[in-house]
Amino acid sequence: MSKMAGSGVHLLTSVVWLLLYFTVSANAGDAEEGPDWWDLGQRIKNKILKNYDKTAMPHRDHNGTTTVYYSLSPIGIWMNDDTQIMTMNTFVYMFWKDERLSWEPEDFGGMKYVFFSPDQIWRPDITLYNNAKVKETHHYGNQPVMAFRNGYLYWVPSAELNVECPQDLTYWPYDRQVCILFLGSWSRHGWQLNPESWNGRNKTAVNLKWYMKTSHHWRVEAATIERVVMKYDCCPEPYVTLDVEITLARDSPSFVFIVILPGLGIALLTLVHFVLPFDSKQKLLMGSLASVLCSVYVIYLGNMVTHQSGSSPIIIKFFGQTLIMAFLSVILACVVCRISSGLKMSTTPPPPKLTLLLTGPLARVLLLTDMASKVGTNFGLEGNNEHVMDVASKKPRYEAEWQLLAASLDRVICYAFVLILVISALVYVLPLA
């Protein structure tokens, strides 16, 4: 339906331009044979503006209604993430009838149209109600108004419209924002001034023919204009607004290289340090490096995203959680190193039930069957099936048991980290795709 409506707008615009072309051609031909073309235009304006009141409505009686056909054709759209204000540069199309500005072409050398300055005639006071810059109420440019002999007027001014557009940054940097502009007469109700969409339908597509798709940070996915009639208990007359709804998608391919790939690299770096031996000192260095990089990256993302939004991007939640896990992995790596290095010379064994658990089926799950088989044999020292005796205390040392406990703890942490990382990716990253 939106495509058909957009085609209807393009067809109507093309017909108007064709009519203007043939009218200009006809007038140009008449001007070559008859009186001066510019002099005729000035004579028409002098005549019809003589007793013209530009503050009065176009209809002659008090019960008449002036219908204004209205449409937009955006040129460019900018979004300020800090202030959450959308700025739209656009062409505005307005078409209405003012019978006071009509004349007979036969009386003026066949002249069928003239141009008026906007401040010379009455214009519709269609205003942006939710204007973000309340002191700037004059939205439209000073382009001339084209008046036809039968009183119809066609005005295509440029305009800058600023509207507050609260952002939902949940799916940043691939978020979509919906901004709504409420347009209507500032001083007239619907029985006096009746705004209509360009093709007369209650809801139609906005013409995006002139939008510069390749030069802006945002891509327009959809744009519609809808006529809404409201009535209030206090008053019998209707109040008409034109609601323009614009759906924007953030469009920046560079985000893949400056946001997604570095973040995934840091997350994988945090995971890779589990590949190192559990009693390696380089393991602590690698985990600390991953923690620092993840901290810097979270700060970097925080500076890129506005803090005015009521929602937090899921990608920041993901890397914030990754940062916490990186810190925990460093702390637990210290515990593993303490168990592996400090307690392996201990003459106190681990809890027997824990040792039994680690040497049972859990050893196969943790891929530690070789180490579990060496418990009680001092890592398979040939000719000695007993524990190594401590020289000072003459008691056996339980080095193999503590090494197995440290390796099992490291392996459990690795499994938990991978599981949490995969679940987080499914919960946080997958919706971005």
Brief summary:
By secondary structure, the chain is an alpha+beta fold. It has nine helices and twelve strands. The strands form two sheets. Strands 1, 2, 3, 5, 6, 7 and 9 form a seven-stranded mixed sheet that branches.
Task: Describe the fold and architecture.
It contains nine helices and twelve strands. The protein has 433 residues and is an alpha+beta fold. Helix 3 packs antiparallel against helix 4. It is rod-shaped and about 120 Å long.
Kindly list the characteristics that best describe this protein.
Acetylcholine Binding Protein, Chain: A; 12 strands; 9 helices; seven-stranded mixed sheet; disordered N terminus; 433 residues; five-stranded antiparallel sheet; rod-shaped; 2 domains; alpha+beta
Radius of gyration: 38 Å
Query: CATH topology of the largest domain, what is it called?
Result: Acetylcholine Binding Protein, Chain: A
Count of runs of 4 or more consecutive helical residues? 9
Q: CATH superfamily assignment of the largest domain?
A: Neurotransmitter-gated ion-channel ligand-binding domain
Low-confidence stretches: 1-9, 18-34, 378-386, 388-395
Largest sheet: 7 strands, mixed
Structural class by secondary-structure content: alpha+beta
CATH class of the largest domain: Mainly Beta
Helicity, as a percent range: 25-40%
Oligomer: single chain
What is the CATH architecture term of the largest domain? Distorted Sandwich
Our count of domains comes out at 2
Q: How much strand?
A: 15-25%
